[in-house]
Amino acid sequence: MVDVLKADQVLTGEEIQDLDKDYVMHSWSKQGNKALAIEKADGIYFWDYQGKRYTDMSSLLVCTNLGHNNKEIINAIHEQVDKMAFMAPAYATEPKAKLAKMLVDIAGDNYSRVFFTNGGAEANENAIKMARMVTGKSKILSRYRSYHGASLGAANASGDPRRFAAESPAASGFIKFFDPYIYHEKIKFADEEEATNYYLHQLEEQIIYEGPNAIAAILLESITGANGVIIPPEGYLQGVRKLCDKYGILMICDEVMAGFGRTGKMFAFQHWGIEPDLITFAKGVTCGYVQLGGVIVSDKVSKYFEDNVLQCGLTYSGHTLACAAGVASVNYYFEHQILDHVNEVGQYLGEFLEGMKEKHPCVGDVRYIGLFSALELVKDKATREPLVPYGTPNNIMSTIMGKLKEKGFSTFGRENNINICPPLIITKEQLLETLPILDEVLTWVDQTYLF
């Protein structure tokens, strides 16, 4: 017999934790542990059932760009629910049509249409399928430290250890190359131009060895996100674009994490003046209020599918409620000058991180652009030995994250990185109030793991 829990039945925080522990499966973790129960959220903060406040210094999973409880997004959802919550993707709806045009306009003059998905993994899955259909080729080149999602194709395109479960056996046609990760490169380059030339030469060699006539696309995060906010050296993305043009390969830029104002531009690739053939997005398009992702396609790709069937489909493609949230979110970015704010407040974040690098022996490198940043923790600044070796199971980083959360500083990291990506609405005052917690915990890291 089903134990019915009525909608108006109020549960305590402990009851929620117990139900969650017994019945919910959590991502990327062993099951059976109690998760922190959250009661409410507003702005850059959320609260547990004991009333403890946490500052959301990672925008949850780098998605709540416009903060929690944003009334303009919530009101748009309410208004759309009253009209129509969902319509099948074969029909045209006002929110879907509006949002598609807005996204095409944001992307630039070279773009025509949008295929909507439910999130970032599906966006990358469908971009891969489109690239293979348009080119008639099969291989997809992507990078080792990348993350493109957990579904089969997106996971096989991903480069970090989370792909391993999807490689038993692996999907065919996925080839990895190395990021331009200068901090850990054994070669000491004179400048970024020299580094760019080196990495592009390596990539071109690999293209030749793999066979340009077999490569459909190069898929890369414009800025490597979850795996350490690795910002490409000057000229690198432009060089990848040229290689794609030279060898008839499509360029897919994954903007799932870096897009929608995170870097101070609507899309991160716009910092380098390039035009990818396909742009994948999710997260900040609705700030997580309703799930939505998609692929923005160039004129060339769009034209191909005017004469050929698009063999992509999802029940919830262009979900009506999600698109209404997307329209409200995109309008908010522009009406509230979020890009200007990110560039202004991001300067203070960058200055603070540079101070942490100077002050703490455990901080080997800091990388930041807009409100997209990471600190890399090391055992030794001289040798740049990571505090946590890549791909090695341990509890050091989870302990550090736990120390931060214990003090009300909520964020995440992978390997030996701590990502700092607060909501884009954070004020200078809120930033300066919260960042000393990070300083305090880094002092503890110095004392615990280095001395």
Automatic annotation (TrEMBL):
Residues in the signal sequence: none
GO cellular component annotations of the record: cytosol
GO function term, MF aspect, one: transaminase activity
Swiss-Prot/TrEMBL keywords: Aminotransferase, Pyridoxal phosphate, Transferase
Cofactor(s) this protein requires: pyridoxal 5'-phosphate
Family as reported in the entry's similarity comment: Belongs to the class-III pyridoxal-phosphate-dependent aminotransferase family.
Record-linked NCBIfam families: PRK06062.1
Protein name: Aminotransferase class III-fold pyridoxal phosphate-dependent enzyme
Organism: Terrilactibacillus tamarindi
The organism's taxonomic lineage, starting at the top: Bacteria, Bacillati, Bacillota, Bacilli, Bacillales
